């Protein structure tokens, strides 16, 4: 994002190169961004990193998930010092081990990631930094880069990409990327494919399995399987609802994790969905698929189990397929509202060649 293009920094701004803001994000903002990341992330641009970029959200037909980023970006821009803002979405110690942020010089020298806090710093030699290796769990951050160089502005590209996608999209239903973008192993450069598909693994660690309508156990093309309709299973039960693909199922499940308390308290009228007992043959098919999608179960558990303690405990104690069916309707309403809001904003973004929060109430 371009910040005040052509404007020179104020003297006091030039002197300040580092800023820590506590509780910059609300708990609900952190939870919403966590939901989006766990629903849509791919293997990141660096080893052992999972990444969710705005361009990827658009490319996978989830542009409506840009909505919660917009007010956060505006707020961070006001404090950004023309540099980088790193917002922490979960807690050191509770959700992951390792991952402390260290500046080479100056104060504060070490940042302990706490949910809602943001560290803002100029990208210069005063702020050379490093991050400790993650030992287990998943460290979640939202990173924002601000620049006064118009050549670095990404908004126009995102708007163009979104405009193209809306012509061919199936509204808010996601479209997976290629399978290599979801395959994680400790050594991404190795030809050894021991690892796991992160979509399948995120479902697995909270107790869900995937079943295809047809036997796919002999299929070796995971990219093809990611595009196929799926059903969710849990224990020895099969939920009689077809999702358009695994990413669709994952988004609904992660939405349930985010909104579980609201789902429990909300009386939603939904058609009772059938829950079937898995046959022995279906259980065998699920086991065969696990060997394809989850080649290193221990690694998946190490990375993701600690990152979903609340959701895992809730699922184990009081999971109810009827409540889950209500979640599907809630997810559709959430996605639809976000999608329609983006569509309303798009004409204004095109004019300004910038993504910003449009205040329709003032029009």
Automatic annotation (TrEMBL):
Segments forming domain Prolyl 4-hydroxylase alpha subunit Fe(2+) 2OG dioxygenase: 85-146
GO BP annotations, alphabetical order: collagen metabolic process
Transmembrane intervals: none
Top-level taxon: Eukaryota
PANTHER family: LEPRECAN 1 (PTHR14049), PROCOLLAGEN-PROLINE 3-DIOXYGENASE (PTHR14049:SF9)
Protein name in the entry: Prolyl 4-hydroxylase alpha subunit Fe(2+) 2OG dioxygenase domain-containing protein
Lineage summary: Eukaryota, Viridiplantae, Streptophyta, Embryophyta, Tracheophyta
């Amino acid at each position: 994002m371009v910040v005040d293009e052509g404007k020179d920094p104020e003297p006091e701004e030039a002197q300040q190169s580092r800023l820590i803001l506590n509780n910059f994000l609300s708990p609900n903002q952190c939870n919403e961004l966590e939901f989006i990341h766990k629903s849509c992330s791919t293997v990141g641009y660096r080893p052992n990193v999972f990444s969710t970029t705005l361009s990827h959200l658009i490319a996978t037909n989830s542009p409506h998930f840009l909505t919660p980023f917009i007010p956060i970006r505006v707020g961070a821009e006001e404090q950004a010092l023309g540099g980088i803002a790193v917002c922490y979405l979960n807690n050191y110690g509770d959700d992951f081990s390792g991952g402390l942020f260290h500046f080479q010089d100056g104060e504060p020298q070490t940042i302990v990631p706490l949910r809602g806090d943001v560290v803002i710093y100029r990208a210069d030699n005063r702020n050379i930094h490093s991050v400790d290796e993650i030992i287990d769990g998943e460290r979640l951050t939202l990173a924002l880069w601000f620049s006064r160089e118009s050549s670095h502005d990404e908004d126009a590209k995102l708007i163009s990409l979104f405009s193209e996608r809306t012509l061919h999209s199936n509204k808010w239903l996601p479209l997976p990327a290629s399978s290599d973008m979801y395959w994680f192993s400790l050594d991404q450069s190795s030809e050894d494919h021991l690892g796991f598909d992160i979509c399948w693994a995120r479902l697995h660690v909270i107790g869900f399995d995937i079943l295809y309508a047809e036997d796919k156990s002999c299929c070796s093309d995971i990219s093809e399987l990611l595009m196929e309709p799926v059903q969710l299973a849990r224990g020895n039960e099969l939920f009689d609802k077809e999702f358009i693909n695994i990413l669709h199922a994952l988004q609904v499940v992660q939405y349930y994790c985010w909104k579980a308390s609201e789902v429990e308290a909300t009386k939603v009228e939904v058609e009772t969905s059938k829950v079937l007992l898995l046959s022995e043959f279906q259980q065998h098919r699920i086991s065969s698929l696990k060997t394809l999608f989850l080649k290193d179960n221990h690694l998946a558990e190490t990375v993701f189990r600690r990152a979903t303690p609340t959701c895992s405990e809730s699922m184990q104690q009081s999971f109810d397929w009827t409540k889950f069916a209500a979640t599907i309707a809630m997810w559709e309403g959430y996605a639809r509202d976000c999608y329609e809001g983006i569509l309303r904003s798009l004409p204004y973004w095109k004019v300004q060649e910038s993504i910003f929060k449009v205040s329709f109430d003032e029009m």
